[in-house]
């Protein structure tokens, strides 16, 4: 494998781009309804694109590091993994002349006890218009949903992710989680899931704001918790979605808008 400094497209991705240029083959991960919806919105699929990164990911320990600081470091590492995978996907889409990527899926696979792979997959599309976007847009929405979104006067801007990790300590937990406690609320867990979900939504909102979008569509949320001994619990919450920008303020966008396609809005 050629030397690579971690910036730009990985050599394997560059090889995919070269094969695309030489073969002219157009591939797509879109379903039939998704492909038709993309066509209605004025997009033509030009190829599958992918971004990935492998990170050492774990609970960082060290002198003077508090559990909540450990949680913050862990959340930052998760954000970096998703961000890197999405950035590499977008770079590959740019390299094949795409204007956007539809139907993006993101996943994390544990390779061993410490290594995890972040992967982003999607279908790069090109707009059949004279206008070109300032940058490649990305969305988890499938083609049919993008078509409906644009008919309502909105355009996808970027995949947005909010991630938060917290820890909570409560000495009552050792009594509330025993078999003799009965069916009772576990206060530490309630506080944790409430706080970590709220912060993940806040992080998601901040991510959307950085794109300059007008709103967002949440596509999925996740929550994972685990105990830290008898009196503490940790948790990670994630919010995934698409930042969207408005280009028409009426009840529905005029049909011509699908031809003009205001890609300069994103």
Automatic annotation (TrEMBL):
<dbReference type="InterPro" id="IPR035439">
    <property type="entry name" value="UPF0145_dom_sf"/>
</dbReference>
<comment type="similarity">
    <text>Belongs to the UPF0145 family.</text>
</comment>
<dbReference type="InterPro" id="IPR002765">
    <property type="entry name" value="UPF0145_YbjQ-like"/>
</dbReference>
<protein>
    <submittedName>
        <fullName>Heavy metal-binding domain-containing protein</fullName>
    </submittedName>
</protein>
<dbReference type="Pfam" id="PF01906">
    <property type="entry name" value="YbjQ_1"/>
</dbReference>
């Amino acid at each position: 494998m050629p030397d690579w400094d971690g910036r730009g497209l990985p050599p394997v991705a560059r090889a995919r781009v070269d094969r695309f240029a030489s073969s002219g083959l157009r591939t797509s991960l879109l379903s039939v309804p998704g492909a038709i919806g993309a066509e209605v919105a004025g997009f033509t699929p030009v190829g599958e694109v992918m971004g990935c990164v492998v990170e050492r990911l774990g609970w960082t320990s060290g002198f003077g590091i508090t559990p909540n600081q450990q949680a913050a470091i862990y959340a930052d590492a998760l954000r970096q993994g998703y961000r890197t995978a999405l950035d590499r996907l977008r770079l590959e889409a740019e390299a094949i002349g795409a204007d956007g990527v539809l139907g993006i899926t993101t996943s994390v696979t544990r390779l061993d006890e410490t290594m995890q792979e972040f992967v982003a997959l999607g279908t790069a599309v090109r707009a059949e218009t004279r206008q070109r976007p300032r940058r490649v847009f990305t969305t988890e929405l499938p083609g049919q949903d993008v078509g409906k979104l644009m008919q309502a006067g909105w355009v996808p801007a970027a995949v947005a992710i909010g991630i938060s990790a917290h820890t909570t300590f409560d000495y009552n937990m050792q009594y509330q989680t025993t078999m003799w406690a009965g069916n009772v609320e576990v206060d530490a867990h309630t506080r944790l899931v409430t706080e970590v979900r709220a912060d993940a939504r806040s992080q998601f909102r901040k991510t959307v704001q950085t794109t300059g979008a007008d709103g967002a569509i949440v596509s999925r949320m996740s929550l994972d918790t685990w105990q830290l001994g008898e009196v503490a619990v940790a948790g990670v919450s994630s919010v995934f979605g698409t930042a969207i920008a408005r280009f028409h303020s009426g009840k529905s966008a005029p049909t011509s808008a699908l031809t003009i396609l205001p890609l300069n809005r994103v």
